[in-house]
Amino acid sequence: MAIGTIQKLNNFVNGQWIPASSDKYEPVFNPATGEVIAEVPLSSREDLNQAVQVAEIAFQTWSKTPVPNRTRILFRYIHLLTQHAEELAETIVREHGKNLKDARGEVQRGIESVEAATATPMMMMGQALPEIANEIEGTTYRYPLGVVAGITPFNFPMMVPLWIFPVAIACGNTFILKPSERTPLLAQRLVELMVEAGLPSGVLNLVHGAHEIVNGILEHKTIKAVSFVGSQPVAQHVYTTGCAHGKRVQALAGAKNHAIVMPDCNLEKTVQGIILAAFGSSGERCMATSVVAVVDEIADEFIELLVSESEKLVVGDGLDPDTFISPLIRESHRQRVIGLVESGEAEQAKLLLDGRIAIQKHPNGYFLGATIFDHVTPDMRIWKEEIFAPVLSIVRIKDLDEGIALTNQSQFANGAIIYTSSGEHMRYFRENIDAGMIGINVNVPAPMALFTFAGNKDSFYGDLGTNGMDGVLFFTRKKMVTSRWF
Ligand code: NAD
């Protein structure tokens, strides 16, 4: 339904797009222009209950559908996602703001997660041991859980939902998706294309909304498992509340990723890598590099090159091919980031590059240019807190041990990178750093979808991560059979 030119979004339940019962809507903005591009419903618990009921019924047949038939739909889905890749990337730019190159990268990463989920028939296989005792054999079988849910963040509107629902569905579960209310348009397209791929009604349902639906999911008796990706406080709430209601929960949370730059690194490639990891997607990535610890010996040379290259980054609308730094998601987020930049100045960090100058040049969107602080220390807010914006802190260190000790003080432990040409440094770093995902001379150490994705400490609550074998283990339960035949 459209009022004027603004589209009101619907929920998707039992194969139908239906309006939410609630009359509360929230605007969806194009962050580059501040223009309202759609209205998303804040659905009620009644809407959620209806979707769960439908999913529960669909589970009866879907869970008994042969596994290869379930994954065959994913092969058609990959084909459709690939066919529509450019349209999907443009939708991401419109509702998220990131530049077209980053959006295309996200589309590709999303497709790779579906490709990995097509291996479910093999990953779901059980185990057998014929002679576990005299004439006795032991076997393990894996089964879907039932109705499961995914709650996703704004920053990867395509990739994160595709980390979760294809593998959950391939395992035989039926699904409720609650996408971010700030980027709901891409989620709609993901569902539409899944229907076009041949997914039966009721298997995948989409309920728009915010915290009310999240809490409804966490408290719902029928929902067996919840996969959450979002900020740290919400992840902790989702994990504790979901577990208290007897659910299996994986909650991937916020981050503060550190890089260590050693004197034996390739300086130019290191600077390029750090710029891509810190300022790509405007720093709105859970794997964005946020702190660089650089050894004193090369600190001045490194910083000079980093600042001069960062000054050249073009700020603008993500659809403009020259744009590197795109807008932040909302004005409220920009205000929080500006507050953090001010705290850095007040706490005596040295501001080398001030992204606030981009604000006057781009009065309509939520822009902020690349910002770099030097002489940052671990007691400062800009060192401790996730900023989620193109703001980079530099810490000067005397050696690798100091860099590792500092990094390991962080509340978070999602990703960490070392830039070095020494195998000895690389190994020492790998063995001593506390992070779930480690990079050696790469830009962003996000694992490919065949591997599991998850951090440590307050960056992750749960046991099994998303993607890879963990995805299948999370969305299935086991039966052990011990048998003797006379
Ligand atoms: P967010 O926590 O604000 O929102 C995530 C989801 O939770 C949304 O669907 C939202 O509707 C819901 N939500 C928000 N507030 C809630 C509340 N009070 N109660 C219940 N539900 C609530 O996160 P975001 O801003 O959309 O996403 C950015 C965050 O996600 C960053 O912190 C980023 O690091 C993190 N993230 C982590 C990973 C990872 O793999 N660890 C990946 C992507 C993003």
Automatic annotation (TrEMBL):
Source organism superkingdom: Bacteria
A GO MF label:
methylmalonate-semialdehyde dehydrogenase (acylating, NAD) activity
Question: What is catalysed by this protein?
Answer: 3-oxopropanoate + NAD(+) + CoA + H2O = hydrogencarbonate + acetyl-CoA + NADH + H(+); 2-methyl-3-oxopropanoate + NAD(+) + CoA + H2O = propanoyl-CoA + hydrogencarbonate + NADH + H(+)
Q: Look up the record and name the pathway of this protein.
A: Polyol metabolism; myo-inositol degradation into acetyl-CoA; acetyl-CoA from myo-inositol: step 7/7
State one Pfam family annotation: Aldedh
The EC number of this protein is 1.2.1.27
Q: Which GO terms describe its biological process?
A: inositol catabolic process; L-valine catabolic process; thymine catabolic process
Q: Which residues form the active site?
A: 286
Give me the residues that bind NAD(+), please.
154, 178, 181-182, 386
Q: Where are the transmembrane segments?
A: none
Assembly, in brief, is:
Homotetramer.
Query: What is the recorded function of this protein according to its Swiss-Prot or TrEMBL entry?
Result: Catalyzes the oxidation of malonate semialdehyde (MSA) and methylmalonate semialdehyde (MMSA) into acetyl-CoA and propanoyl-CoA, respectively. Is involved in a myo-inositol catabolic pathway. Bicarbonate, and not CO2, is the end-product of the enzymatic reaction.
Q: What is this protein called?
A: Malonate-semialdehyde dehydrogenase
